[in-house]
Amino acid sequence: MDRRLSEYLDSTYNDGRTLFLRNAGANVNTLKGSIAKILASAKIEKVVIAPHTDCGAMGFVDKVLRGAATPSAQLADNLISQFTGDKYEGRDDLERNVNPETQRINFEALEADMEIEMAIDLIDISKLQIPAHGGEHVLTITRPSSIPYRELLKRYTGVGMFDSYFIQSDSASDVSPDIELAITGLHISDVRFVRLMGEDLSKDIDYLKSQPYASASRLSLVG
What we know:
Blueprint: H1 6-13, H2 32-41, E1 46-49, H3 56-65, H4 73-80, H5 90-111, E2 117-120, E3 138-142, H6 149-153, E4 164-168, H7 176-185, E5 190-194, H8 202-209, E6 218-222
Parallel strand pairs: 1-2, 3-4, 3-5, 5-6
């Protein structure tokens, strides 16, 4: 969901035929429902799982496993539990080796007998050209799509390419742990639901309003 990845994803993968799902840490667990729906409804030739270095989600996992942070119940169940018992040599090893392998295993268990090519693209943040940013960030929640992020962000006023984190799934409740991490870990208070094709996002918005972690957030609907 990292705001620093959108330009890379547009330039590297967005050929108009690629569907993007995004969340915290490239965690397959909270995207299972969205992945299953896409695999059942579209002819998918290849899946790329793209975790990255300097990952806030993996930094949180590392803190929890070292006893330096305490997760909520849903973060413990959906994010932390898959790494319990793993041995790793620092956060860099967690990001570069343990998490990519964990998500590869998670996806292979999900796709069952379907023959789909899979690749891991570990994005090295240090190799991307990222401008300095001192202002507030936005969290965009929307459905999976092939729409370039440059086009999506044109729907906003004053939100640049590197200003918005993205969570893309078929259900806000499925990615509730990811939204919680964005709001509580990144201190994002401006949450925008973007309607792509006239979808009814009222259930997603009502769900988020019911979550204590989102009580101080500003929720708005775009499109």
